[in-house]
Each structure stands twice: as C-alpha cells, then as structure tokens.
C-alpha cells in the first residue's frame, strides 16, 4: 500500500514537473513515419497513428534532452551511440510548434522545417487529420504566391506582403478579381497563412472543385508601428496597422493587381489578434468592406462580459439593420478545444449580435485548439461563402 | 625554451583540433551589432567591424557549447547565469552558413533566420561588405517574387519554382520580357537565389538605375530524378533535370508569363553545380539559349586537365566560330579565395576557349570564396550584360 502510494506520488510529481513521457504510461503504436514537414531527406521527427510525435537527435555529451510540445516537456532516452529518442503524448490533428531542449538550451529540431510563430522561427510538425485533403498539394491548377516589398510611410520602414493570385489570373488580362485581406495572429507574421495556414493550397483546391470563386488573397504583417520620435525613446510604440492597411496596402494592391475596386468585392478576415484587428478595421470602413471573417477572435476579446452596444467600437453595432445591410457576411468560428477565453468572448459577441438582430454564420471546428488547423478549416469554410 | 615549445605545441594542437577561439589569440574590436539576418527582436548573433561573429545562447546545464563557422569550431564561455558567449575569427564579407554545437548536438542558432544550404535548413549570417548596397532593400520600385507549384511528369512529383517579375510587369499587359533561368549549387535548392542570393533585390536595384533591362528570372530546383521502378529499388536515381528544364519548366513559364519566346531573349546561368548543369543544357539546346553564365563552375569540373574538344560535351565547342555566332554572351566568374579546384578547372576551360577562338567575359570577385557573395557579385555583373 505504501509502495503503491509512493508510486502514485512519484508519477504525480513527474506529471506536475511535466517530465513524464507518454511512452512511460501508455502503449505507443509502433507505426511512426517521417513528418510531412521534415527537411528533405530527414527521417525525424516522426508521427504515428495516435498522433504521437517521436524525435531523435545526436547529442553524445548531453545529460538531458527533451521534446517540448504543447506546453509539455518529454524526456528523451540516450542509446550507446549518443542518439537521443523520445515521444510525446498524442497531439491534436493539425499543425503544432515545438522545440528541443538540450542541457537547458531551447533550440529548433535540426530535422524539421521552420515556421514563424510563437515569436520565433522554429520547428513545426503536422499531425495528419481526417480533412488534411483540404490543404493537400495536388495536381490541380495552382495560383501564384507573390512576395511584394514596399516602402511604408506610416512606419518609415520597408514592409512585405504575400499576394495569392488564383489560377487563370495571368491568362486573361481583362479579368478583375475580388480581394480577401487575411491576417495572422499574435507573435506570427505575414508568412503564417502560407507556411502554416496553407491558404494558397486551400484556395487552389476549392477553386479547382468550383467551391470558391477565384479571388486574390493578401497577407500582410499585423505589427505596424509609428516611428518613435528620438526625443521620446521610451514611449510605447503606437500601432498604425489600420492606417497602413487603408492608406498603403489596399491602394498598393489595387494599383498592382487586377482587383475590383469596390466594397462588394473586398473581404477582410483574420485569426485571433487578426480577427480583433480586422473587425475594428471593417467596422471603421464599411464603405470599403462587405465581408468579414473572425477566426477564433472578436474585438471584445478577452472580455466575456455583456457588450454595451452604445460604447463598443464607438457604437458601430448599435443599428443592427444597418449592419445587416452593410455586411453581406459576418462569419465567426472557434475550435472546441480552445482555452475558455475564446469561446466565452466570442459567445458574448454573438449574444450582442442576436440582441441587435444581426445575421451571422457561426462555425465550430471539432477537436482543435487555438491552432492553425482551426484556422485552415475556418478559411476553408469562409472562402466558400465570400463574394457570392 | 621547453616552456615556449610546449606552449607552441599546445597552441598547434588546439588549432589542429579547431577549438581555439580568435578571442584567445587576437584583439577583438568591441563594436558588435546584431546581424542583419537575425530573427525579429533577437540581439544575437552579432558581427563586429572585423567581420567576427559573436553568438550567445542560454544552456545552463551544458558542458561545452561551440560556434561552428567556416569549418572551424570556436568554444563559447559560460557566465554565472548559464549564458554562453563566444566569437569567431574574422569572416569574409558576405553570407555564411553556421551552426551551434551544444554538448555534441549540432543545432541551428535560435537567434538567426534560417536558409537552405549545405543540405539543411540552418543558420546564416551576413558580414557587411563594401558593396552590400548592390542587394540592399531600398525604396525603389520592386518586382514580385512568385512561388509556383507544378506537377512534373518526368519526376512524378509536385515541384516548385520561384519567378521574379520586374517592376512594371503588371502595369502593361502587352509588354513581353526576356527570361533568365538561374540555378543554385550543390546541397542548395530553389530558395537559395532569393534567400541568400538576393537575386530579386539585385535586379530591382539594377533596373532602378537603368543598368539592367527588365527581365523575368526563374529559379527552380536542380535536383530532379526519374521515379525509381519498384522492381529496381537499389538503382542510383537518374537525373532528369535537363528534361524537366526543357520540357516542363520553360513551357510552363512561357505559358504563364509574358515572355519573348525566342533564343535571343532567353539566358541561362548557374553557380557551381548549377554552372555545370546549365552549361550542358545551353550547349545541348543552343536553339533555345543565346546567353550563358557560369558562376564558379564549368562542365569540365573538377578536372584541371587540358580539354579534348573532340570529346568534351560531345564536341559542342569544336567549331569555335559557330559557338561565337550562337552565344551572344559566354560569361565566367570565380572568387579569389575559392578552393584551387574551381580556378583550376575554370582555367582549363578558358584555355580551351582561347584555343578555339571563343569570346568570353571573365570576372574575378576579390576576397570571396565559394560562397554566396561571389555569386551575388556574379549576378550583378552578368545581369548588366544580358539581353543587350
């Protein structure tokens, strides 16, 4: 009895410490395969049918090596050749950031490709999902993803956006297209929607199956700050993203791409921080946008309190019938495994919409958290509704 | 005397071991600044006015941490907080790959951005050069860099190329442009000419100053293999890059972009392995190309022996006056610090050209090795001559 209690206590301690591996407590299926986002020719990291991640790294002189994924660290085991191997518990389907810890140094896994998220370029892994086909690279007509550098007066800096043009864009010089402005979340950048989000492949596949209209998609960086005056070096930088979007990005896109320059053909959407930003921008400029999408976010975040329509966003939702008239689509989505603050704040926003009689579409992503698979699915849904 | 000899012996051993740091043997200027290719907000790695690289990483439990750059490992020193810091000897101006070793694990530096080269995605650093302005990101008109996915029948795989279209390309739907096909080297891929080579910025700057004609530049992956027959799994894969280039890439580009479909408006160039590949392709298809560029490479590599024109590339250089008639430009370049095999094999090739009376341009990059700065300079030179 004492032995059993000690064992339970030691397991509990290990779990609290976050240092117990799934392999020590449960059966791990031995059907690991190299991850789809490995570097060319690299055998590790691997994923099995349970969604466990197995990593391997040579570190002959290390005392401790860990896999750090989903907020849990998993100890690796060393063999006689100095090769460390270990597994995580099953992960949700979709994309996850992770890193390795080698004797206390947090480093990217040399086997994975790298993605910008969580405020750094680092390792990512893909857990196959039942609906991975929505973003699979297939032999269908492919649009182009173009990188565009531009000088921004509002920030005093060179900035960059990525622009998806649909298949057929180059063929007919007279055809003009609607535009979706699509934003990333906190600690991410303009590379996220292509690198992790696979926005181009989602659109290619939808367009190939006639489920979405051909459209241009513009992905810029949601971090944009006024240059600090030299005399005021300690001031908190002021965001000018709305100014950059309205006065720099949109005119640039309308001048360089064959867009339809009209609110009915311009949509805006974003995830998390981007959902918050784009809702503010859309409501401040309804003369520019007729289609809104909020993926795992709304402008009342993080509050779950009832919204006061008189003051929220300067009363922009006060006249419900006017909002209905203006917005051809108000789309919201959230994953079932997101932290409570997201469904709660989105719920408070939806309560306000219902009280105001404002139409909206609400989508729930089953079994996914505040991560990219929720947002891929959200884009996949949203893109089928816009501009129709 | 014995002490002195022992000291010299121990220094010699340390240098042979590659584990002595520059800081231990010479004065290091204390004017380090964060590298231009750091991740956003990261203070390390840094570079000083001598071209020394300083790295820093937290690894509280590590026994040994090293900076591995230019084939030399430099030991870092640990402070009381588990922070390791150390410097390299001065590096050549330009771009270099590097990595960190943490208790025997070779990993990317979490502070740097990542580049594909040396067969892996890993750390890179930029040592400012006197001529860094040739690829500086400036407020000039910028072309687009487009990523294009396509299915390749010759390999049975989806492949990808990057396509630079010059400033103004979108403005005039009737304008057609010449095309440069530009290839990377061994253990690199289609991302190299943009990521490390800055080909887009070199062209943007040249075009802005009217030093190069507006052109399209296509960068594909030089590794392309026939699918292995299942019954013959041990066969060495056969390269089909020439077939992919001639039958898939060029028709794809001519169909999707506004090119001038004529040999006089089509150039091909490459670096190292890419110079070798593109010389073979150019000489096999002079009906398709009128401009060739070999950056640090030729098709006789690695041989320094006199070339037999009767057999070399099936006698393609035998009729010198015909080659002169066909090639409007045969351009060769090499860096002064490259390993002898490069100048020697290029020298043997040039001797053959002279014996055959074949005109060519020869460029020498001062103070650079078999690295990207040699190739940036080569492109900068070459792009000013083609299509004129």
Automatic annotation (TrEMBL), chains A, B:
The protein's matches in InterPro entries, at most eight in alphabetical order, are given as: AB_hydrolase_fold, Esterase-like, Ig-like_fold, Ig_E-set, Mycobacterial_A85_antigen
For this chain, one GO molecular function annotation is: acyltransferase activity, transferring groups other than amino-acyl groups
Signal sequence span per UniProt?
A: 1-23
State the Pfam families in the record. Esterase
Keywords assigned: Signal
Q: Which domain of life is it from?
A: Bacteria
Which SUPFAM superfamilies does UniProt cross-reference here? Answer: alpha/beta-Hydrolases, E set domains
The question of whether Protease is a record keyword is answered with: no
Has UniProt tagged this entry with the keyword Signal? yes
What is the name of this protein? Enterochelin esterase family protein
According to its UniProt entry, this protein's organism is Breznakibacter xylanolyticus
């Amino acid at each position: 009895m004492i032995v059993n209690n000690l064992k339970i206590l030691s397991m509990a301690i290990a779990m609290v410490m976050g240092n117990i591996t799934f392999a020590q407590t449960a059966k791990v299926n031995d059907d690991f395969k190299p991850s789809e986002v490995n570097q060319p020719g690299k055998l590790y990291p691997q994923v099995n049918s349970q969604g466990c991640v197995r990593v391997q790294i040579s570190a002959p002189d290390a005392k401790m090596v860990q896999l750090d994924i989903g907020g849990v660290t998993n100890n690796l085991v060393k063999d006689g050749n100095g090769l460390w191997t270990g597994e995580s518990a099953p992960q949700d389907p979709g994309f996850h950031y992770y890193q390795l810890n080698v004797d206390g140094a947090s480093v990217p896994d040399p086997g994975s490709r790298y993605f910008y998220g969580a405020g750094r370029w680092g390792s990512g892994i893909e857990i196959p999902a039942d609906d991975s086909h929505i973003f699979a690279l297939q032999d269908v007509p492919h649009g182009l993803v173009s990188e565009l550098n531009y000088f921004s007066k509002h920030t005093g800096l060179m900035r960059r956006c990525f622009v998806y043009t649909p298949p057929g864009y180059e063929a007919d010089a007279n055809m003009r297209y609607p535009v979706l402005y699509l934003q990333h979340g906190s600690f991410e950048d303009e590379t996220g929607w292509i690198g992790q989000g696979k926005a181009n492949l989602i659109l290619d596949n939808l367009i190939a199956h006639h489920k979405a209209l051909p459209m241009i998609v513009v992905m810029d960086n949601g971090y944009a700050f006024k240059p600090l005056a030299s005399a005021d070096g300690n001031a908190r930088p002021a965001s000018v993203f709305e100014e950059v979007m309205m006065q720099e990005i949109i005119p640039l896109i309308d001048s360089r791409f064959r867009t339809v320059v009209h609110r009915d053909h311009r949509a805006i959407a974003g995830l998390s921080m981007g959902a918050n930003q784009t809702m503010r921008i859309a409501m401040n400029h309804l003369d520019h946008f007729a289609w809104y999408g909020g993926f795992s976010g709304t402008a009342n975040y993080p509050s779950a309190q009832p919204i006061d329509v008189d003051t929220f966003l300067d009363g922009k939702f006060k006249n419900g019938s006017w909002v209905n008239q203006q917005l051809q689509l108000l789309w919201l989505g959230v994953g079932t495994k997101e932290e409570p603050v997201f469904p709660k704040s989105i719920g408070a926003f939806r309560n306000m919409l219902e009280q105001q009689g404002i139409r909206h579409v609400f989508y729930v992503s089953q079994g996914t958290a505040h991560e990219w698979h929720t947002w891929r699915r959200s884009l996949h849904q949203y893109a089928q509704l816009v501009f129709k």
